[in-house]
Specification:
Length: 350
């Protein structure tokens, strides 16, 4: 009996760890199973928020999640690959999207053709066994080119081909043409998906040129001469494309005409400014210049008269007067050292 009591007590303790699945609320919560959303309209307990906020919010979240799971298990279920899945109803709430709903991808020409004819794409094996090489080789991707080189190390020259023609180079050129053709087709598919008009390259078999395009091509061809089609013969009922004149056909004609007009206008403005220019007289400046000239002339006359009087008295003009007239100061002596190598002429004074 003691063993039974211990087992029962142990089970009760283990069950006490787990909370019950039945949750009581004053107001029922609103569950949106389509979005797995639970909305609780009950008021929060302020005392529990103040005493233990984290624990109270954790318990509240657990109870609301339990109510959401209770409604989820009541939905119809289905088994997919040994897994039980619940069928969710349509959502009741409308959530805003950051971006618009992506549009379905437009089909390429081949995809449309395959869909119309019911052609299904077969899965391609990654590797196949090559009997010539006696090993597994990749059908695409990495090391595919190496496998082709090892298998086709020699090529047979066809009977109607040039025996001196390089068959390996011919094969490379054909492969480059296929790659270029696929790239052009890929770009056309992108342009068709974005509703962009694809420029015509030659005259494809699938597309037929319109009358407007033919007239435009004929007009451009006629203007592709040195005289811009001036001396070209006109056919009967010949139509000219609208919007194609000399300025549109000759590259840079519009730009050159505008440049010449602006240059002519600029030269005209410069010429008018030169011809209509009148001298501006500054009377005060002229008077000040005249006064300065008169003052300089009087000073020169005074110096010349003073020099003439000295010549009459002494016969020679002294160095001091000459230096003063020129404004040169007399050097002062006694500040330099005497050169012992320099001999002095004359008798020494005793």
């Amino acid at each position: 009996m003691d063993i039974v009591k211990e087992i029962l007590e142990r089970e009760q303790q283990e069950q006490a760890k787990y909370k019950p699945i039945v949750v009581e609320k004053l107001l029922e919560v609103q569950n949106d199973l389509g979005l797995l959303l639970c909305t609780d309209a009950n008021d929060l307990d302020e005392e529990k928020l103040k005493s233990g906020c984290d624990e109270y919010l954790l318990n509240l979240t657990r109870d609301n999640t339990q109510l959401l799971l209770n409604d989820l298990w009541q939905q119809p279920t289905e088994t997919v690959e040994e897994s039980i899945l619940a069928k969710l109803p349509a959502p009741n709430h409308i959530l805003p999207r950051e971006r618009k709903i992506p549009e379905p991808k437009t089909l390429t020409k081949w995809q449309k053709f395959a869909q119309e004819k019911g052609i299904k794409k077969k899965p391609r094996m990654k590797k196949v066994f090559d009997q010539d090489l006696d090993k597994w080789v990749p059908t695409y991707g990495f090391k595919r080119a190496d496998a082709e080189k090892n298998r086709e190390w020699v090529l047979e020259v066809p009977g109607n081909a040039d025996p001196m023609e390089d068959q390996f180079q011919k094969k490379k050129d054909l492969r480059k043409e296929r790659v270029a053709k696929n790239e052009i087709q890929r770009m056309k598919n992108i342009a068709r998906a974005q509703k962009i008009k694809v420029p015509r390259v030659g005259i494809p078999n699938s597309d037929v040129a319109s009358s407007k395009e033919l007239i435009t091509a004929a007009t451009v061809a006629k203007a592709s001469t040195a005289s811009v089609g001036k001396f070209q013969d006109k056919l009967t009922k010949d139509k000219k494309a609208r919007g194609l004149g000399v300025k549109e056909l000759i590259p840079g004609a519009k730009r050159k005409a505008s440049h010449l007009g602006s240059e002519k206008k600029m030269n005209t403005e410069v010429l008018e400014s030169v011809l209509n220019k009148r001298p501006k007289l500054d009377i005060e400046k002229a008077i000040s210049l005249q006064k300065r000239d008169d003052r300089e002339r009087r000073e020169t006359e005074d110096t010349e008269s003073a020099q003439g009087g000295r010549k009459k008295k002494g016969g020679k003009v002294g160095k001091s007067s000459k230096s003063k007239s020129k404004g040169v100061k007399k050097p002062k002596g006694g500040k330099g050292q005497r050169n012992p190598n320099k001999r002095t002429l004359g008798r020494k004074r005793r």
